[in-house]
Amino acid sequence: MSEALFLIHSDMSPAGTFGVVARKLGWHVEEVRPHLGEPLPPLGDFGALLVFGGPQHLYEGEPWIDAVDALLRDAVGRELPTFGVCLGAQFLAKALGGAVRRAEHDERGWVDVSLTEEGVADELFASLPAEFPAFEWHWDTWTEPPGAVELARSEHCTQALRLGPRAWGIQFHAEVALETIHLWAHGKQPFHPEPESLVAETERLFPAWHALGSTLAARFFALAAG
């Protein structure tokens, strides 16, 4: 059985769709919470590394952030299939030489995202539509590290990147479950200004979004297994 290492940074930001798909495909998942002081295992036993979201800011220096940076540099260097979501994508950018900073525009709720030409041609992102509404919840962004390839954008910032041949990051939340969106709408800081409007829009858009997230997760794990 293939093993995947999941780094979880908040109980309000679980692996969601990616965890469900991984287990359905026969992957054994080990979850570690580095922000709580749980030690990071060596990567040699794992076939994939996934780094999920959380409320932390990576420009607020903490020792555990440096440890995750080092783990990601190791993963990309050994071409371990790696995937970052939101904070996880920011981690990838930071670890490989980019800078994480406060975004000029928060993106919370549904935002239009378009693939770049490189995204359309990417072996992972080619499974997605060229344009789609994406669920977002972030207030930080990154500057591209050396060698990064931008795969998707919104009006305001980069939404996806590839680092090396086997590492990808997304700013949007393709992993998010419907109940998680409801939870965030009514209780995740910074609070959404119109939670009921967000919930109504989510009821309309979520079925297609869940299908997109499932497709992306299945494609990632197929690439990792292959």
The CATH superfamily label reads Class I glutamine amidotransferase (GATase) domain
Structural class: alpha/beta
Shape estimate:
globular
CATH topology: Rossmann fold
| DSSP, total strands | 9
Q: Please state roughly what percent of the residues sit in beta strands, choosing from under 5%, 5-15%, 15-25%, 25-35%, 35-45% or over 45%.
A: 25-35%
Q: What would you say the CATH architecture is?
A: 3-Layer(aba) Sandwich
- Span of the ends, CA to CA: 13 Å
The unreliable regions are none
**What is the class in the CATH system?**
Alpha Beta
Average of per-residue pLDDT values: 94
Q: Mind describing the biggest β-sheet?
A: 9 strands, mixed
How are strands sequenced across the largest beta sheet?
A: 2-1-3-4-9-8-7-5-6
DSSP helix fraction: 25-40%
Rg (C-alpha, Å): 16 Å
Q: What is the succession of H and E elements? A: EHEEHEHEHEEEEHH
Count of separate structural domains:
1
